[in-house]
Design goal:
Layout (H helix, E strand, L loop, with lengths): L6 H17 L3 H18 L5 E7 L18 H14 L9 H8 L22 H5 L5 E7 L4 H15 L8 H16 L10 E7 H21 L6 E2 L2 E3 L3 E3 L4 E2 H7 L2 E3 L3 H17 L2 H11 L2 H6 L3 H35 L6
Parallel strand pairs: 2-3
Antiparallel strand pairs: 1-2, 1-8, 3-5, 4-7, 5-6
C-alpha cells in the first residue's frame, strides 16, 4: 500500500478482497478453511488443561459438523462489503489518515478502540476497526480447565505466534494485505500458505457446560413468555492482547446457528448431545429457526435471509432429531429385550 492511502483506494481494496473471498465457493476454499481449523485445534491441544475446542460463525453455519458440504455464496455479505465503498464515497479523494497513524503510533496503542474510537479525524464507518470487520476471519474457541484462563492465554499467545496465526488487531495493515493475497490465490485455484485472521476466545469448562445445559430451559421459557431467548457468554478474546470485550455475546444464537465442537471430553460431548435432543424434542425446526432469527444481531438476521443458510440450518437440526430418534429406538429395543427375558416361566 502507498504511504498516503486514499479512502477510495482502501475501501476498494478491502471490499474487493472480502467479496472475492466470498464468491470463491470452491472445494479448494473449503479445504483451506479446514486447514485453518485443524491448525488451531492442534496447537490448542498442546495448552495445559485443554478440554477441547469449538467453532462459531463462518464457515460453521454453512457446513455440517464434519465440515462437508458446498459453501454458499452469501449475497448479504457482498452487500455488506459494498456498503463500505458507499460509506467512503463522499470523501473518496481524501487521505485515509488512519494508515500513517497506525504505522507511527500503533505499537504504543492499547487496541483499536481506546484511541481510534474517539478520534475526530475520520468518520466512524471508516476507522480501522470498521474497515477490518469486513475481512473474513475464523471464530475459534479453546475450552480450558476451570481456573486456567490466565495460563491458557499465555500459552496460546506463544503457540499462535509460532505458526503465524494472529488476530487482525495485531497488525491491521498486514491483515488487509494477507486477505488480499489469500483471496487472489483461492480465486486462481492455488492453496494459500497464510492463515486467515483469527478471532480466538478462551472459556472455562464449567462455564460452557452450564450454558449448554441451560439452552433447553431458556428456549422453553422464551416460548412461554414470548421473549427473546438470551444466555450471555463473555469469553476472554484475543485482540491486540487478551481481553474481556465490553459486551457479552448471546450464546443462544451461536448454539443454534453454528456451534461446532472438536475433541470435546466424553462428558462435555454427552452434555451437548442431551441438550440438543431436548431442544429438538421441545421445538419444531421452524420454531428453532425463528429463535435463531430473534437472537441474531441485525447483520446476522439479514445473513440468514439466505435460503441456502436456512437449508443448512434445517439439515443441522434434522441431525439432532435423528440423534433423538436413535436414542428412543435404542431405549425401546433395550426395554423389549429386557421384557422378553422377564417373561413368566423363563426363570
Amino acid at each position: 500500500m502507498n504511504n498516503e492511502e486514499t479512502i477510495e483506494s482502501i475501501t476498494k481494496r478491502v471490499e474487493g478482497a472480502s467479496t472475492n473471498f466470498e464468491k470463491t465457493n470452491t472445494d479448494l476454499k473449503r479445504r483451506f478453511l479446514i486447514w485453518n481449523i485443524e491448525s488451531f485445534n492442534i496447537i490448542a491441544s498442546k495448552v495445559t488443561g485443554s478440554k477441547g475446542t469449538f467453532g462459531t460463525g463462518y464457515p460453521f453455519y454453512a457446513l455440517d459438523e464434519n465440515m462437508e458440504g458446498t459453501l454458499p455464496i452469501i449475497e448479504e455479505q457482498i452487500r455488506y462489503n459494498r456498503q463500505l465503498i458507499k460509506d467512503g464515497f463522499t470523501v473518496q479523494k481524501s487521505i485515509w489518515h488512519c494508515k500513517p497513524c497506525l504505522e507511527e503510533k500503533y505499537s504504543t496503542m492499547p487496541d483499536l478502540k481506546q484511541i481510534c474510537k474517539p478520534c475526530p479525524n475520520m468518520l466512524d464507518s471508516l476507522k480501522p476497526r470498521k474497515i477490518i470487520n469486513r475481512l473474513p476471519d475464523m471464530d475459534l474457541w479453546l475450552v480450558c480447565e476451570d481456573g486456567g484462563i490466565e495460563k491458557a492465554q499465555e500459552e496460546m499467545t506463544k503457540l499462535l505466534k509460532s505458526i503465524g496465526m494472529c488476530s487482525s488487531d495485531i497488525n491491521p495493515i498486514a491483515s488487509i494485505e494477507d486477505v488480499e493475497r489469500i483471496a487472489d490465490m483461492l480465486k486462481d485455484g492455488k492453496m494459500p500458505n497464510t492463515f486467515l485472521p483469527i478471532d480466538a476466545h478462551i472459556i472455562e469448562y464449567s462455564t460452557i457446560k452450564s450454558l449448554i445445559e441451560k439452552v433447553p430451559n431458556e428456549l422453553r421459557s422464551a416460548k412461554e413468555k414470548g421473549t427473546v431467548p438470551y444466555l450471555p457468554i463473555h469469553p476472554k478474546s484475543y485482540r491486540k492482547d487478551w481481553q474481556y470485550d465490553d459486551e457479552a455475546y448471546n450464546y443462544i444464537y451461536d448454539y443454534l446457528s453454528a456451534f461446532t465442537p472438536f475433541n470435546f471430553s466424553e462428558e462435555l460431548q454427552l452434555t451437548l448431545e442431551e441438550s440438543r435432543k431436548k431442544v429438538i424434542s421441545d421445538n419444531t425446526p421452524q420454531q428453532l429457526f425463528d429463535f435463531l432469527l430473534a437472537s441474531a444481531t441485525k447483520a446476522n438476521f439479514r445473513r440468514f435471509q439466505s435460503i441456502e443458510l436456512e437449508n443448512c440450518f434445517m439439515n443441522k437440526v434434522i441431525g439432532w432429531e435423528n440423534l433423538r430418534k436413535k436414542d428412543i429406538n435404542c431405549k425401546n429395543e433395550c426395554a423389549k429385550n429386557g421384557s422378553d427375558l422377564e417373561e413368566p416361566g423363563e426363570r
